[in-house]
Amino acid sequence: MPTFLVAQKQSIWNNKSHCLDSPQPQSKLMFMPRTSRRAAVVGAGPNGLAAAIVLAQAGVQVDVFEAEAQPGGGARTLDLTLPGFRHDFGSAVHPMAAGSPFFSSLPLQQHGLEWIHSPAPLAHPLDDGSAVILERDLDAAASVLGEDGKQWRRLMKPFAENWEVVAGEILRPVHFLTKHPVLLAHLGLVGFPSALALCQQWFHNPRTKALFAGLAAHSVLALDEPLSASFGVVLGAAAHAVGWPIPRGGAQSITNALCGYLASLGGTVKTSNRIDDISTLHGYDAVLCDVTPRQLLRIADGRLSPAYKRQLEKYRYGPGVFKVDYALSAEIPWKAPECSRAATVHVGGTMEELAASEEAMRHGHHAERPFVLLAQPTLFDPTRAPEGRHIAWAYCHVPNDSTFDMLQRLEAQIERFASGFRDCVLERRVLSPAALENMDANLVGGDIGGGLMDLCQFVFRPTRRHYATSASDLYLCSSSTPPGGGVHGMCGYNAAKLALSRM
């Protein structure tokens, strides 16, 4: 997320500024001939695959080692309920993947990736039976938002119209140097405060405040915390600039396209190949790890200095999620029929209710009325369920490593705005924080963001070294490094650029 807000004090990024160049479109990329250099990547999530592609483009021979039988990490599509119902294990809707500078530079469409845009990116139902709809077209969105429309346009327009610049800047490490100081200073001014403060300053209508609060709640911060507004601004701008699309066939399509392109460059992905000790990886000039600090401490203990290990041990993980996947007999019966225009629905009511939900979660409690993020992909991609059937994907935020069963509270929230929802459920798969971590070791305690994204860890993530470790040939490239969580590949891109500059 927005990495320009606090100045980077580490000299490596000033001395090696070429590491920070934005990815170039595919037609402009220059590929190096194959060399004798070799690199290993541990983990085949989007960041690990992005790192492998950058290295392979430079002529490095790359092997990717993935512990699970299916590559993708949080970007996998699995049979989680009934036969024929294809569910996204992690990410389902992908504004940052569609808007990623690196992914946009790759020929992923040639390897099967197809984006589907729902008519509206987002719906936010309310208790009066209506819903606030975030339209993709900025002028249409402003019209829908009535008295706040002019302010919405004023807030989002600079960033939506300059999305390529914004994305290129916020998805790299914190830095001094920029060619767009005015635009980024403006983003810093509106993004640094809390979401509640921004709502009070910019909007008057409770409907608009509820809409923005839902966007900001993706931060997994309390809505009165600094930086929470930045998530709302960036995700709102992305909705107008690139949309909130779903990949046809599910998130696995993103992974398959990355794997296919990597294979065309000569890289290999070795699944069901868990690396418990990186000392078993022989003959590699560099090892990049798409793992969180906890896993790095375990698999690289003998390679790390005591001081660096102490720094990693202090790394803080964020709240977890409680997730449910549904096989449905019919579409969700929303009271507000306009909710069926959006692949993503924010369920939780007013700004005040969302704030109470996220405040409870940040203080180790379980909200009585949790904010629920829900995706309904089969409205727009019927290939993912048997004919006439549907899937839904929903989760709420809970304290890290929570063991509390949130199912009744989560479904009560959906029923609140879609009476009869439970009658549509054919099968459900409940994934607690522990179950999520068991299926992907990077989801520590159910944390889907790779670590808490508060002010301190926003700047020094996971340490002041960012991607570098105390071992000169060992790097971190996971969402525990800048710019953090999300399917965008930029953690892997940035780490690989640093590794190449040293190789």
Cα radius of gyration in angstroms? 21 Å
- Helix residue percentage: 25-40%
Q: Any idea what the shape is?
A: globular
Assign the CATH architecture of the domain at 12-78 and 248-316 and 451-502. 3-Layer(bba) Sandwich
**Average predicted confidence as pLDDT:** 93
Question: How is the biggest beta sheet arranged?
Answer: 7 strands, mixed
Could you please say which CATH topology of the domain at 12-78 and 248-316 and 451-502 applies here? FAD/NAD(P)-binding domain
Which percent range describes the beta-strand content? 5-15%
Report on this structure:
The chain is an alpha/beta fold. It has a domain at 12-78 and 248-316 and 451-502: FAD/NAD(P)-binding domain (3-Layer(bba) Sandwich), CATH 3.50.50. It is 34% helix and 15% strand. The chain is built from 19 helices and 16 strands. The protein has helices at residues 12-15, 46-57, 95-98, 101-104, 138-144, 149-161, 163-170, 181-191, 195-202, 206-216, 228-241, 252-264, 293-299, 306-313, 351-362, 407-417, 433-439, 455-459, 490-502; strands at 38-42, 61-65, 77-78, 87-88, 115-116, 120-125, 131-134, 246-247, 268-270, 286-289, 320-328, 342-347, 372-375, 390-398, 425-431, 474-476. It has a seven-stranded mixed sheet, with helices on both faces. α2 (46-57) links the parallel β1 and β2. α2 runs parallel beside α19. The protein is globular, with a radius of gyration of 21 Å. The protein starts with 11 loop residues before the first helix and ends with a helix. Mean pLDDT is 93; it is low at 1-20.
